[in-house]
Design a protein that fits this description.
The chain is mainly alpha-helical. It contains 14 helices and two strands; from the N terminus they run βααααααααααααααβ. It starts with 7 loop residues before the first strand and ends in a 7-residue tail after the last strand.
Length: about 290
Amino acid sequence: MLNSFEGKWNKDPFTAHQFANPGSSVGTIENDLHRKRRAAVLPFFSKQKIHALEPVIQSAIDRLCHKMEDYVESGRPLNLRNAYKCFAADVVAEYCFASSGGLLEKPDFSLAHWKEHQQGLKAGPKARYLPRWYLPVVRGAPEWFRATVDPAAKQFEVCPPHGGEKNEDFFEKAGDRTIFHELINSKILPPQEKQTIRVIQEASAMVGAGGGSTSQVLTALTYALIANLDKSKKLREGLRNIMLESSSPVPSLKQLEKLPYLVRIPVIQSRLIYSSAIAYHTLYRLDVSRKD
């Protein structure tokens, strides 16, 4: 049965352990635990939270646009997928760890980084057919050992995105505005769910998923607007009117939300893009109770 929301569905261990992140929501097998972890994360993506993140998003947009202008002036071809990946990953990492990683500042929109990242992803499907201890052991091993065992596994990230700083130094820098910090101080999560390694896995999964899915939608959306000039014209006219009414050079998020056409486009595009080949399977959990 496909796409059923009734009953309780556990993730299939065969696919769930492929990225060695059992502490994250996406790597959680048991249905009830997954619901608890997901409930703790969902508030971070409310409209109010996203509005509070607007300065971070706008700063990343400015850096992205400036770098795109450099490509236009030089006449070099631009890999939009990599550009959008850098933008999305920097924003999500800043939200999760108070440290963006500076991917937008790296040459060629971090082309080398994304090639290595893609190689790392290839190790996941292979791990489905190996014992569960394989990925955690390989992931924590030195780079030379990982490269010997599996060239793809060489690219696995060993340190958390905040660079392995001491917790005290990291929290002092992060303040109280990161997902990492708020999960640690959550009032609804039990102590075992606030362990540092568990929360790092949760936030790291958000960075990977946020960068991949967001860049996929933005890339497809950009192509769709270029290929359909009537749609692009309609969108530009709406944006032009908003900018004329705005008192600042760049319209705020609240002003942009007044454009129904602009708001609908990403939603529709997200439904049209191709889905990931690395899918998680679910298994129906049948609770059998004995009655005397």
